[in-house]
């Protein structure tokens, strides 16, 4: 099993990396990316870990960083739809499929 990223999720990650680079430095941005990758691999191995939401999606929080991964199972893996800051409106990225 593997995972893929929706183009919007790719942009979410890029935006978060830019923010952390500017505000906290390259090392913190690298830690964010490492934590995202850890969670993505964990969810590939255990796709039922996340909390169920609407439209067959699940959400799972990152540790240390205030972000959650919104994903759904697809044939042969996971599709990560949104990497959302936890203070964003819950409807952010809701139209992504």
Query: The biggest beta sheet, please?
Result: 5 strands, mixed
Calculate Rg over CA atoms: 13 Å
Cα shape: globular
Can you tell me the CATH class? Alpha Beta
The residue ranges in which pLDDT falls below 50 over 5 or more consecutive positions are: none
Query: In percent, how much strand structure appears in the residues?
Result: 25-35%
N-end to C-end Cα span: 19 Å
The tally of helices reads 2
Structural class: alpha+beta
Question: Quick check: average pLDDT?
Answer: 95
Order of helices and strands: EHHEEEE
Helix content: 25-40%
Strand order of the largest sheet: 1-5-4-3-2
CATH fourth-tier homologous superfamily: RelE-like
Q: How many strand segments? A: 5
CATH fold group:
YaeB-like fold
Whole-number tally of structural domains: 1
Provide a short characterization of the protein structure.
This protein has 97 residues and is an alpha+beta fold. The chain contains 2 helices and 5 strands.
Q: Would you give an account of this structure?
A:
- A hairpin with a 5-residue loop joins β2 (51-52) and β3.
- The protein has helices at residues 7-24, 26-45; strands at residues 2-5, 51-52, 58-61, 67-74, 77-85.
- α1 packs antiparallel against α2.
- It has a single domain (2-85), classed as YaeB-like fold (2-Layer Sandwich), CATH 3.30.2310.20.
- The protein starts with a strand and ends in a 12-residue tail after the last strand.
- It is globular.
- The model has no long low-confidence stretch (mean pLDDT 95).
- The protein has a five-stranded mixed sheet with strand order 1-5-4-3-2.
- It has 97 residues and is of the alpha+beta class.
